[in-house]
Automatic annotation (TrEMBL):
PANTHER family: INNER MEMBRANE PROTEIN, INNER MEMBRANE PROTEIN-RELATED. The keyword Transferase does not apply. It comes from Thermocrinis ruber. This is DUF554 domain-containing protein. It holds the Pfam family DUF554. Keywords: Membrane, Transmembrane, Transmembrane helix. The keyword Flavoprotein does not apply. The chain crosses the membrane at residues 6-24, 36-53, 59-76, 97-116, 145-166, 178-197.
Length: 215
């Protein structure tokens, strides 16, 4: 495998899933959509648990990073700003899909793992989830979702190569802290997808991941 492999697969599966969704259109029943999203939520939970178990963080430091990052995110109202942006382009499948596929702990942690450890596993898992999600989205929003695949390719490759070139500055302990924190946020994301953690503004906690890499 090569650097960026996970992202290239992600790109291909979003193209494939979107194409199928455009073909199927209204032939996908609502109960199937709900069932698929529940499956994605549970799988995201399992990915989060895997990262939590595999990494040994500095617990107190991770706690303070989460608090500080959350304070920054809530102060900047990141999730609220994103929601307003999405509402302004509600009919745009391109924007909706682009935000869904690139904003979150899976993207950040997956690109970091591939760049620094050569492990594409998390990005490949994300790729399959995005492929399925793109089928459902394109059936609703149309061909804009198909073009979001190119944004996914650009965004994730940029992030992966940035981590690759600056990865030597990330200490092993900082890596463990980041992956552990990413696992926790993935756990929260899974619960949110399942509708069990709707009050938490997950995007507002994302600055904690960036802090964990550099602090």
């Amino acid at each position: 495998m090569f650097l960026g492999f996970g992202t290239v697969v992600n790109f291909g599966l979003v193209l494939l899933g979107s194409s199928f969704g455009l073909w199927a259109r209204r032939g996908i029943p609502e109960r199937l959509r709900v069932g698929v999203m529940h499956a994605i939520g549970i799988f995201t939970l399992l990915l989060g648990v895997k990262l939590l178990v595999e990494n040994k963080p500095e617990t107190i430091k991770v706690f303070f990073l989460l608090v500080l990052g959350g304070a920054i995110g809530y102060w900047l109202s990141l999730e609220e700003r994103l929601e307003r942006l999405s509402q302004g382009f509600r009919g745009s499948g391109f924007l909706t899909a682009s935000l869904l596929f690139t904003v979150g702990p899976l993207t950040f942690t997956g690109c970091l793992l591939e760049a620094v450890k050569g492990d594409s596993g998390l990005l490949l898992s994300k790729a399959f989830m995005d492929g399925i999600s793109s089928t459902l989205l394109s059936a609703t929003f149309g061909k804009g979702v198909l073009f979001s695949a190119f944004y996914v390719l650009f965004f994730q490759l940029s992030l992966t190569f940035a981590f690759y070139f600056f990865g030597n500055f990330i200490s092993p302990q900082a890596m463990a802290n980041t992956l552990f924190l990413g696992g926790g946020l993935m756990l929260a994301l899974g619960l949110k997808i399942l509708g069990l953690l709707e009050e938490v503004k997950l995007l507002n906690l994302m600055p904690s991941l960036l802090l964990s890499v550099v602090v």
